Amino acid sequence: MIRKHPLSEEFPEFEDKILELKVDNEHFKNLYEAYDEVDHEIYRIESDAEPASDETANQLRIKRLHLKDEIYKFLKEN
Description:
The chain is an all-alpha fold. It is 76% helix and 0% strand. The longest helix has 24 residues, at 54-77. The relative contact order is 0.18. The mean pLDDT is 95.
């Protein structure tokens, strides 16, 4: 099933903190926006709205995973 992966679903235990940090912390806001942008791009590729090679799609998935890891670490530490 093709779907987006919003952070509020990926980290439901941090939903309130995510909302707060998006407003109050510029670094987190930048991470959040980068993640959201990559996730949207992957969704467009997987739903055939935007053509891309398998290599490009895989590189974007890796980038999303690295951003997700960084966001999780930030949420745990702040």
